[in-house]
Amino acid sequence: MSISMRRMSVRMMIYSLKSFPTLTSIPFNAIRYFSSSSTNGATLSGTNDSATIEAKSSVSSDEVSKFSSMAGTWWEVKHNPLISMNPVRMSFITDQIRKHYSLTIIRHGKESYEPYMGLKALDIGCGGGLLSESLARLGASVTAIDPSEGVAKAAELHSRQNEKTRSIEYKGGISAEELASRDEYKASFDMVCVLEVIEHATDPTSLMKAAISLLKKPQGDDPGGMLFVSTINRTAKSFGVAILGAEYLTGKVPIGTHDWNQFLSPEEVNGLVREFGMVESKKMGMVLRPPFYDLNWYLNENDLDVNWIGSYRYER
Questions:
Q1: C-alpha distances in Å from residue 171, one per residue of 21, 31, 100, 124
Q2: Which entry of 106, 123, 190, 220 is 20 to 30 Å from 173 by CA?
Q3: Which residue ranges in the chain fall short of pLDDT 70?
Q4: CA 302 – CA 295 distance, rounded (Å)
Q5: What does the H/E/C string look like for 174-236?
Q6: 236: buried, middle or exposed (CB in 10 Å: 19+, 13-18, 0-12)?
Q7: pLDDT of residue 24
């Protein structure tokens, strides 16, 4: 996009922002967008992608095509801001898993650091495998799924470069709902991660139901599995930062990557998971530290206006 066209697009976006009189007070149920291209038996197309998603699915074929086109650049820092965000996501997850399972995590010198050893992890919407590889390096047995065949294949190829990540079980062309329908995966994971995914789903409730059904249930002293969700809050600030800033001003992500209407607040996600017997354990904002161009993220429990991450456990 030329500079003049980008400036014109920014002016149009600013004008549209002014037309939102009460951005932060619009109820989620009143504006939630359900994609007209719902993948009810539809064939998904993208880069080397011809997967068919089952009828019961929260996957949007448009979103699959969009992210399939990024398969070749997923691990390039200048094309993927999630690379710089991943360390703070992992810091939050590790801290919450340690507390949830009462783990004692001690690192001795150069010895292998594997706090997730013995735990089974599921990465829903794994993309190029950023989170999946991090989980595997810390000792988890990882299953990673993505509705895009092309992206999942690229992730698998990348994971082969490291001995600790070669064992990741990648499954492309599959939705969370389809995996949840398979008996061998039901209630089998110690942690399920849905990071930067729910805002791209056509039916967040269906996605959360499937994700939670894949977690181990509480038994005796075992608290059951833990769910992790990260997304973008639906606020005026997130419109300015995640859409105007990231897409139109800096070009950090392609224009059209996000739909502000599909962003969710922590309260909305908490309401969704409560329908299926879970409660919030902890939530934190993931905030960019100035100057913003170097993408230096940190966790802040008082700033959840844009990116945020939450952990959820079974209510007992």
A1: 43, 32, 28, 10
A2: 190
A3: 1-56, 66-67, 69-72, 74, 77, 79, 104-112
A4: 19
A5: CCHHHHHCCCCCCCCECEEEEECCHHHCCCHHHHHHHHHHCECCCECCECCCEEEEEEECCCH
A6: middle
A7: 39
The one-letter code for the residue type at 204 is P
Name the DSSP class of 42.
Answer: P
Spatial distance between the Cα atoms of 94 and 100, rounded to a whole number of angstroms: 10
What is the amino acid identity at position 291? P
Give the pTM. Answer: 0.80
Q: How far apart are CA 16 and CA 243, in angstroms?
A: 12
CA dihedral of 133, 176, 53, 205, whole degrees rounded to 10:
-130
* CA distance linking residue 111 with residue 113, whole number of Å: 6
Tokens of 53: 């998603």
Encoded tokens for 137: 């390096």
The four Cα atoms 143, 147, 152, 154 give a dihedral, to 10 degrees, of -160
Write out the two tokens for 45: 């197309």
The pLDDT score that the predictor gives to residue 37 is 31
Cis amide linkage into residue 223, ω under 30° from 0: no
Single-letter residue type at 20: F
What's at 69, amino acid-wise? Answer: S
